[in-house]
Input
Amino acid sequence: PEGATVLPGLNCLELRVHPQRGRGVSTRLPLDKGTLVHISPVLLFDHAEYKEHGRHTKLDHYTYCWQGGYALALGLGSLFSHEPFGHENVGFTRDMKQGLIKYTALRDIAPGEELCICCGQNVWFDVATGALSGQAETSTSNGIVCTGQQQQQTAESLLQCFDV
Output
């Protein structure tokens, strides 16, 4: 449907822009604890390639440690926001044999809530707090949701990247 972010088989997820965190993933429907939320195939980089190229780019902020190197989660996998250990609502499992990362709800998650993983204790960025809740004031444009103080132009500029 027009205006919806559609992900085959998992169309309850959407991108939102958080005032401090930037883009993140939220759910439009309730998710029960244990629900498989998303599966991301990965793009693999060996140690040498990543050391020479990847770590000097924005990719460095979105990769996962992987056997033999690093992996970039495709789909929404690299867009989950971070919460410190014990505060995340989504866990992930690396399936190295199949080249996938599987994301699962660690607790019941309400509609509108931001989906957050724990990136570990030694993160390289300032941790923004306050995951989005379902009560956030939002405006939407073709499935891109701006929250709080964000302007509609933010959503429109993001849409240009998606050729919507």
Summary: Residues 36 and 104 are 4 Å apart (CA to CA). The chain has one domain: 13-162.
